UniProtKB/TrEMBL annotation:
This is TlpA family protein disulfide reductase. The lineage of its organism: Bacteria, Pseudomonadati, Pseudomonadota, Alphaproteobacteria, Rhodobacterales. It is found in: Cell envelope. PROSITE patterns: THIOREDOXIN_1, THIOREDOXIN_2. PANTHER family: PROTEIN DIPZ, THIOL:DISULFIDE INTERCHANGE PROTEIN DSBE. Residues 1-20 form the signal peptide. Residues 26-170 form the Thioredoxin domain.
């Protein structure tokens, strides 16, 4: 059954625009390489994108000063609560120059409890991930390749979006 999943993903990617993607999520014709960006974790340790190898991730590049980013964070938290586990994680990657303290304060203020905290104070991840605006959310497969992206806010806990993302999780 696991061998069917890569075939299904390959098919979905091959039909591109004909494949029903929710809320403007743009799938690539073929998976794209992803830069190995670095970040700081909540505990102060450092990590990089290779830490997620073997897991499908949804990387949301955001900042506390970005109003649409702030508004969609509870929905990303709900998505992590529903789909998060050994095979999938929402990676909320903050680019706040003020660092992890401001992100922790924001998480506490709005009640984010399911998302881990990842911060890139250097903002280099924006260039490395080719983001053109905030928020930008990138779907990355278990091999570390970009399957598609959505620029702008989305209703991440909407049943259509959840179903769409679930189809990529092995």
């Amino acid at each position: 059954m696991k061998n069917l999943k890569p075939a299904l993903i390959a098919w979905a990617l091959s039909v591109g625009a004909a494949f029903a993607t929710p809320q403007g999520f743009a799938l690539h014709d073929t998976p794209q390489p992803v830069a190995n960006v670095r970040y700081e974790k909540d505990d102060g340790s450092r990590g990089d994108m290779e830490d997620f190898r073997g897991k499908v991730i949804l990387v949301n590049v955001w900042a506390t000063w970005c109003v649409p980013c702030r508004e969609e964070m509870p929905r990303l938290d709900a998505l992590q609560a529903e789909l998060g586990g050994d095979d999938f994680e929402v990676v909320a990657l903050s680019i706040d120059r003020a660092g992890s303290q401001i992100v922790r304060r924001f998480y506490d203020e709005i009640g984010v409890t399911n998302l881990n905290m990842y911060v890139d104070q250097t903002m280099l991840s924006m260039t490395a991930l080719r983001t053109v605006g905030l928020p930008t959310t990138i779907l990355i497969d278990a091999q570390g390749r970009e399957l598609g992206r959505l620029v702008g806010p989305a209703e991440w806990d909407d049943p259509e979006m959840v179903s769409f993302l679930r189809s990529f999780i092995e």
